[in-house]
Task: inverse folding
């Protein structure tokens, strides 16, 4: 596939913290981590999804003025950014692995009409749902 | 304006209410989750999320009750208890004050309407159907009783 969505980003409060969280706890891999002065372009990937990168971007200069960056940090910390969904084969097993790794759960696994879903947040405040679709 | 570290901890209290809206959430319990003093918690929460914590909890309970009315055939008494009310009367009155219709009317209407929400993940469906309770329930009652539009909301926590 040569066309499609390549990168979608999240705002995070600290890129080192976010990189450690998504790699060591969630199980993603680093795709790109390059710096240019204060700017750092950091993306991670799901190990089974090589065509898509999730950007982990920090609000701040040179992209944002300080007022804008502060507003973005507040919005992320309040959980106001759009929810994210991770599709998994086994919601309960994944949720248990994440919680054991110290991830902040927002919802235990619940069966709903043949699907199972659970929830967690990253350290910054971005919210995820883990969804196992019924077969 | 807000300290992101504090906001992140207030979000944790909001998440805990979301995860267990049927439980009692006195300010003391919420303040402990957020690491904020009891005296400051309600003010901080309202500044962050626009509604006092008890009213946020109420919207989540109504949202959950609406979902159970729509998606299950549970008796309304059972739904009242499952969503955190201690009496059917309080549940019915509050539900009507917030949504404008009684639980049984809501159930009949919801079940009669075809829905396309099956395509939307459950968490987003829940959020979409949360009542937008921008004023206190007591104030809403008063307004509807007197037919006036009050501009100021009495502050409650």
Result:
């Amino acid at each position: 596939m040569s066309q499609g969505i390549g990168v979608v980003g999240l705002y995070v409060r600290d890129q080192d913290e976010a990189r450690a969280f998504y790699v060591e706890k969630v199980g993603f891999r680093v795709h790109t981590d390059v710096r240019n002065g204060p700017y750092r372009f950091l993306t991670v990937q799901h190990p089974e999804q090589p065509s898509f990168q999730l950007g982990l971007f920090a609000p701040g200069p040179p992209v944002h003025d300080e007022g804008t960056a502060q507003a973005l940090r507040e919005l992320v910390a309040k959980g106001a950014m759009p929810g994210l969904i991770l599709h998994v084969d086994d919601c309960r097993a994944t949720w248990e692995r994440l919680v054991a790794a110290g991830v902040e759960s927002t919802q235990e696994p619940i069966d709903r009409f043949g699907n199972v879903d659970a929830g967690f947040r990253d350290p910054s405040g971005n919210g995820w749902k883990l969804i196992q679709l019924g077969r | 304006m807000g300290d992101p570290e504090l906001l992140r901890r207030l979000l944790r209290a909001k998440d805990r209410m979301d995860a267990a809206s049927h439980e009692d959430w006195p300010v003391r319990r919420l303040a402990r989750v957020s690491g904020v003093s009891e005296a400051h918690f309600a003010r901080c929460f309202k500044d962050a999320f626009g509604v006092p914590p008890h009213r946020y909890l109420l919207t989540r309970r109504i949202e959950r009750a609406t979902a159970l009315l729509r998606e299950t055939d549970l008796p309304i008494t059972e739904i009242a208890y499952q969503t955190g009310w201690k009496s059917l009367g309080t549940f019915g009155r509050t539900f009507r004050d917030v949504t404008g219709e009684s639980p049984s009317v809501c159930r009949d209407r919801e079940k009669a309407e075809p829905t396309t929400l099956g395509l939307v993940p459950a968490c987003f469906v829940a959020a979409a159907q949360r009542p937008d309770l921008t004023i206190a329930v007591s104030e809403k009652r008063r307004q509807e009783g007197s037919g006036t539009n009050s501009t100021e909301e009495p502050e409650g926590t």
